[in-house]
Amino acid sequence: xxxxxxxxxxxxxxxxxxxxxxxxxxxxxxxxxxxxxxxxxxxxxxxxxxxxxxxxxxxxxxxxxxxxxxxxxxxxxxxxxxxxxxxxxxxxxxxxxxxxxxxxxxxxxxxxxxxxxxxxxxxxxxxxxxxxxxxxxxxxxxxxxxxxxxxxxxxxxxxxxxxxxxxxxxxxxxxxxxxxxxxxxxxxxxxxxxxxxxxxxxxxxxxxxxxxxxxxxxxxxxxxxxxxxxxxxxxxxxxxxxxxxxxxxxxxxxxxxxxxxxxxxxxxxxxxxxxxxxxxxxxxxxxxxxxxxxxx
Length: 296
Hints:
Protein name: NAD(P)-dependent oxidoreductase
Helix content: 25-40%
Order of helices and strands: EHEEHEHEHEEHHEHEHHH
Number of strands: 9
Largest sheet: 7 strands, parallel
Radius of gyration: 18 Å
Distance between the termini: 35 Å
Strand content: 5-15%
Structural class: alpha/beta
Shape: globular
Pfam family, one: Epimerase
Organism: Actinomadura napierensis
InterPro entries: Epimerase_deHydtase, NAD(P)-bd_dom_sf
Number of helices: 10
Strand order of the largest sheet: 3-2-1-4-5-6-9
């Protein structure tokens, strides 16, 4: 059993990560600005403002974890002012990376976002190919996606600097909490049935999704394999094995993104727009849950 500190432990993804890691035998410490929603599976919780570098150092020095899973962030685009989103998300990433390296934390996992790919840009978006993978060029167009790319690059800068901490970033697709399968609103404010019935809603995120429990299992698998990865600072997509849509994306995507018509032809059947093949190859992880089996 190892001690794992999870920031953003009360969030949509954080709750399932805490529960999954605890069930796997880890001692989980939940840290959140408002930790009341952290599952009881956590051994301990602590309210903290990790945008303060001194507080970030203090939290990690207090618990001395073997691993840090950094999920805390302003989690959606346009939810706050641009200046606040950029400042909070980038400062959080820098502070957690800096404190982890300074205190010799062996492992660090940082949450990024698929939005770094640039889909939905007002001037149009033409992917080089589909499905998207980690080698595809990034092209953020709003401050939220920019802040997430900066967070990734901050982590990779520390990794390139020869830090002893093993690091990786995950780009989790649209996270679906367990209660949302039962009809609770998703982070967009719509139910999952609404996203399926009205494809224009799901098109905003290219019909991607990830059950939060699969996200927890991804983090557990990444922590286990992190020391063995050839390159420090890897980035992974984590998404369901199918699209959150009733029609093939080869037909749906060109309807909402006409410029994708040619490259979308590869997305037949239930194929998603994001590939998690790298996670399966390097970590032995693939999502177990689908809307076809989980939707009440």
